């Protein structure tokens, strides 16, 4: 019998319904997402791209209450390695998302670094490696963000290592963690992105357990990943090739990840995010139901 993972709070996100943008005709309407995520057996969700779900707090609260759903986090995108010049525009974006996140009773803000190559065209926008000065801007900027978000909104930021960003590989993630204050900045470990970039999620949890503040659960298809790496495919087209697959078909094995997280002795959200943009509207719900059943078999 699987161990009881009673400290792990499982949820899902718009991403698992093929939602990457606030408004896109290829995405399911937000009402359908809410209906289906509840039908699949989840009680926690993320807000997804700001503007996809209603941004009026009273209306969103009513829609969630109708379906017995709660919000675990909001998500923001940042380019803080570019230095103080981007702070004002970053804070404007963060403030909108953080205010709605707080209004929904959530306590976390997932922070995703900007991409170094275009997610669709593969155009190289910036070098994939940061200079020492850019690393300093990134780490100090994230610490400032963590402080300001906590002071202004009472939320904790969790930084999300992500393919095709400057926080991706094991070396980059460890450098980032070693260079930031755990009182201000912790990690959203996305098991799929970390595997995509060659990292070992269980090892990271066991080594930097005190810095793991949040989990995203997804898996990578190793065969597709090998093709993607060999062909130099950017993340968006890689998703269209099916690089992120339905568990338990891929890597990493999620049960050892969840067991390692349970051993940390703290309550953690574990939010399913199976990247599927774009996808047919009838595809997500059956996958979500099977994934929830699989996670229950792991004890979560």
Automatic annotation (TrEMBL):
InterPro entries: IolE/XylAMocC-like, Xyl_isomerase-like_sf, Xyl_isomerase-like_TIM-brl. Pfam families: AP_endonuc_2 (PF01261). Residues 34-297 form the Xylose isomerase-like TIM barrel domain. Gene3D superfamilies: Divalent-metal-dependent TIM barrel enzymes. SUPFAM superfamilies: Xylose isomerase-like. It comes from the Bacteria. This is Myo-inositol catabolism protein. It comes from Streptomyces glaucescens.
């Amino acid at each position: 019998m699987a161990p009881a993972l009673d400290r792990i709070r499982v949820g899902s996100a718009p991403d698992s319904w093929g939602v990457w943008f606030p408004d896109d005709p290829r995405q399911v309407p937000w009402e359908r997402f809410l209906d289906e995520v509840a039908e699949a057996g989840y009680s926690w969700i993320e807000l997804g791209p700001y503007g996809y779900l209603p941004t009026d707090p009273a209306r969103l609260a009513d829609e969630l209450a109708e379906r017995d759903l709660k919000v675990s986090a909001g998500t923001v995108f940042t380019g803080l390695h570019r230095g103080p010049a981007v702070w004002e525009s970053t804070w404007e974006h963060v403030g909108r998302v953080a205010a709605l996140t707080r209004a929904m009773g959530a306590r976390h803000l997932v922070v995703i670094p900007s991409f170094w190559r275009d997610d669709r065209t593969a155009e190289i926008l910036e070098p994939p490696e940061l200079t020492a000065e850019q690393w300093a801007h990134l780490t100090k900027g994230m610490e400032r963000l963590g402080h300001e978000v906590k002071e202004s909104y009472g939320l904790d930021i969790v930084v999300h290592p992500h393919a095709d960003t400057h926080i991706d590989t094991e070396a980059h993630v460890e450098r980032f963690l070693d260079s930031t204050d755990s009182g201000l900045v912790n990690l959203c470990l996305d098991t799929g992105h970390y595997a995509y970039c060659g990292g070992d999620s269980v090892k990271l949890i066991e080594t930097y357990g005190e810095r793991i503040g949040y989990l995203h659960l997804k898996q990578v298809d190793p065969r597709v990943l090998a093709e993607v790496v060999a062909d130099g495919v950017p993340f968006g087209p890689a998703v269209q090739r099916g690089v992120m697959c339905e568990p338990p078909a891929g890597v990493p094995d999620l049960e050892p990840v969840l067991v390692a997280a349970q051993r940390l002795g703290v309550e953690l959200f574990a939010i399913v995010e199976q990247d599927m943009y774009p996808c047919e509207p009838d595809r997500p719900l059956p996958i979500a139901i099977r994934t929830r059943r699989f996670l229950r078999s792991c004890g979560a």
